[in-house]
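Page 37, top half.
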Amino acid sequence: MKAWVVPGYTETRELGSGASGRVVLAVHDGTGIPVAVKYLSDRLRRDQAFVRDFRAEARLLGGLHSPYVVGLYEYVEAPDGAAIVMELVDGIALRAVLKQSGHTDPEAALVVLKGSLLGLAAAHRAGVVHRDYKPENVLVAADGSSKLVDFGIAADDGTTPGVAGTPAYMAPEQWQGGPASPAADVYAATATFFECLTGRKPYTGQNFAELALQHIEAPVPEADAPEPVRPLIRRGLAKHPEERPEDAEAFVAELEGVARAAYGPDWEERGQRKLAALAALLPLLFPSAGAPPASATAFATTSLWAPGRRGWLGAGAALALGLLLIFTEAEATDLTGGATVRSARATTSAASGAPVPGAPGAPSPSASTGTSAPPSPSASASTSPSPSGSTSPGASPTTAPATPGAPGTTTTPPGTGPTDTGPTTTPPTTPPTTAPPPAPVDVKAVNVTSFRQTDFTAAQVTLSVDASGPATVLLEWFSSDARGTLGAPEGSMTFPSATAATARTLTFSGQGCYWGVRATTTPAAGNGAATQQILIRRCEIR
């Protein structure tokens, strides 16, 4: 059976494929502009959750307008398929550059970091966290500029979508299931910066448990980096998100100050030339050269929890047994490499109909992100089709995306009619069949049914959640010297609610005479939050 093709485009060749789908090089029939088309696999298209995620990814890309992020042309969904039509970038993955050269000059590494941060800054301004920044998701163009790709597991800032990401680049709070935040993207970008400088990842644990502990507790390896840029490594890889720059834009300001002081006012121009020279060593890998399709990553899906330190060994064992990770060709033997661990799909369903190539306001297919370099030929936007979508700010559109080429649909590409006013689309008479959205979860109450001290630095808490469906529980614990005040935070964890009471063991620092807990849920419970406080044994008056 012949695979479905987006109407109005002629495919040239496949750029990459994986379990989630494939990416092809195609040409827009009306304008002749090359594009990248990302198709969702037939298997995943039968799963409405994946389809919603795919729509959400397209909607997110449609809301980001930055020369450092791959642009969206349109999203097309029909009874026979779903696809995202994207800008093509004549570039190669940063991973390929590092595989060839081992590492880069500090100025070239700073150029990569700055371009990456500017791409992330566009997402952060839109209230979106990428969550999967890594060398595989940075494309380096022939002129040394770069673009950020693959927002497949992005999430709204502040949400708790579950543990997901690529282990070698995940921030400590990401391992623990904490809320998504721009600071986690800053951490991942800094980890990649460190790899550019040194030729190795910041932490090299041989299994998930070891790697998790290193990210959470091991010292920042700043001494391995060149001395002038160590402040950036120290700040970007800080263990606590509040110790890092608050977002990518703030980190760019720090980067420019460090780079100018260390390497002079022309550091960026020199760094871009050096990066372009490294990319030029791999001419056959550029999609414009007609190279064979690159291997893609097949992503595993798992649900993780946030155990205390004593539970990490068990967590690692469960992960090692429960995950089947198929790595990219560049990292086939690296246990801590580029495979993305994904969980907790987003449920925000929205589609974005963006201008087709050549329409007013459509992003340029040029890979160039600088002001002096001419547009480069089009090429691959991404060779890692992503099954997971993301939530993004804004309400979902009230109408389904137009489906060019479906029965009852008429699309006029720009430039082909008497007046170039962009595509005109008549909604199909029979829209694609989709499953009805799930009923919203109603959380009536969350309660702390038991809270007691079990050791000098440990306590056990039992929670119950009265809800009509699955909810997420955020449990936080505190220590204080005053009754009725929660005081200083000691830790937090996020986990799905259960039908029965849930017990958790908490570890305290031993400070304070009062220990307290607070439980909240997403969606919010009708009673708001549950709190309880106890006076610990060593402080009891006898």
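Page 37, bottom half:
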Amino acid sequence: MSDGQARRDRWARLVPAGYSAILALLITGPLLGSGYLLLRDAVSTPRSYPTDSALGLGDAAPRAVPQDALIAVLSPMVDGGLIVKAILLVALWAAGYGAAILARELLQVTTAPQLVATTVALWNPYVAERLLQGHWSLLAGYAALPWTALAAYRIRSSTPLRRSRGARRPADLELPTDRPENDSPGGRGGRLAAVGPWGALAACLAAAGLTPTGALLAGCLALVLVGRRNMAGTVVLLLATSAPWLTATALSTAGSEPSDPAGIAAFAARAEPGLGTFGSLAGLGGIWNSDAVVNSRTTLLALVGTFFLVAIVATGVRAVVDGNASAETPFIADSQRAGVQTRRRLLVSAAVAIVLPALGATAWGMDVLEWLVTSVPGAGLLRDTQKYVALAMPAYALCAAAGCNALAQLFASKDRAAADTAQSQPLCQSMDEMPRAATTAAACAVAPMGRATTAVISLTATIFIALLTLPLFDLGWGVSGAIRPVHYPIGWQRVAERMDGPGDVAVLPGGMFRRFPYSGRTPVLDPAPRMLPRDVLQTGELPVHGRTVAGEGARAREVESLLLRGGPATDLAELGVGWVLLERTTPGPLGESKNTLAQLNPVFSDTHLALYRVPDAAHRDTESTRRAVSAVAHLLWAALLIGGLLLASRSRRTPQHQ
């Protein structure tokens, strides 16, 4: 390869990476300042602690495992708010860049269509709604999807397909025999090349497994794409990377309990203006919480944006489906056949990811899901069906890139046909209409086809990007400023420093959501469980659309009921409560709790918080065996994440025989 070609290849790789970084920064811009992410379900704090709840061993279901444990381990060294913002920014960048790489490898498109794929992956309602809902860790799973598809494709293409008995490869497909020993299948380079895609898949599944839902998203996609011969290895990797929340589910009492069936209707996908439920989902929207919807999607711009997105995707479906490797071709390169099968399976996955959530919003679909969550432990992960629309993103990105390329080629072919027609006639129809100096061959020459095609592709990509971004203009700059950092009062740090004795923490007012003066008008999850060094009891109850979806925290409900009716402090102590935290500046039920607080020992008080010590609190420690098992599961997850990244990176750097 010449130096000029190498420079062009490097530039072609840098442009999508830089474009993805620009979009990610444009979306998360306000978060780059000092402060902490505190919006609905997103809670970042200066420091968190490896409590039982962080390990998923508390009374509530382990929905934030292993993300809470990761922050708890890293935050003593790096500010926890910075960690969360960095993960979110890297996740968005990786989602866009991964879509570009997927389009380049599966479609062999140039830079401009890759930028269209990046735009589809980043600038869409799904990203906006999950940001507004505070699902930063779910977006890490979302970002892993194109990379998971890429790793699965490479695994599939490196696995020789079985051929009928007695069949032989044609001579022109035989592997060369004069390659260096180090690049042979048994050599060091060959071994690295073989295991590199598996390392990449392990890293993808681990990154997606920052939350249980992310693990399911990436795991489903990997199992669909790797092929039957690689299925067993993929299942092993999926179970290993999901070990933190699987072990937490098995070890905690809440993990084996059925979920409240009321959550199915509460979390069902929602129709947007001018669109039915199916149309909203096809446009990558339709989240259950109407308050977590970008403003432009509450108007007819939702219809306009969905029309443009679906139309752009539709232009490339045929190009993605078609391929040179057909089922009737007896001998074809394994990688080429794997590419066609990967593209087709991604399309099927996208269709299923849209149709099933739409069916889940119907009456009979809700009945099926209610039966699942009440009969199958852990099936509560399925109640927010709109989450799984993320599986459509890789196929959407591929189709948009293919459509851009196909339309540009169509326009260029028409231009070429017109040029060929013109060449069969005098190039300048009337010399009298032009100056004599303009009658030269240069003035009448037709531009080279390659250059014209590049210009047409760039113009088509620009139009596609404009059609994708303009209807969703308010996604930029933190979804029009809705996502911004907050600053905690110093009292939180003082409370954490004073909490030096045993016992769990009960919090007043009742409920899990707060409205602090410093957090704005949007309800936010109580930061106490991540801010304090002791386990904070939470009921897990979620207010949705005027109804309450019950949680798994039975002991937390008992403690909250005791406080609200003003029960005796001795009952709190028997329940293992050693501390009561009163959050003064947020609305919520207090009941007769002042009667209970009067029996406690004041420890700290300011305008925002008041901390009380419960006398003679019972000591309730989690069994050391359970914590040890959970710690091993988290270490396994971390090892697969880091080791997979290193293995994949090293195998890509190893020179292979050409």
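Margin note: Residues 106 and 339 are 6 Å apart (CA to CA).
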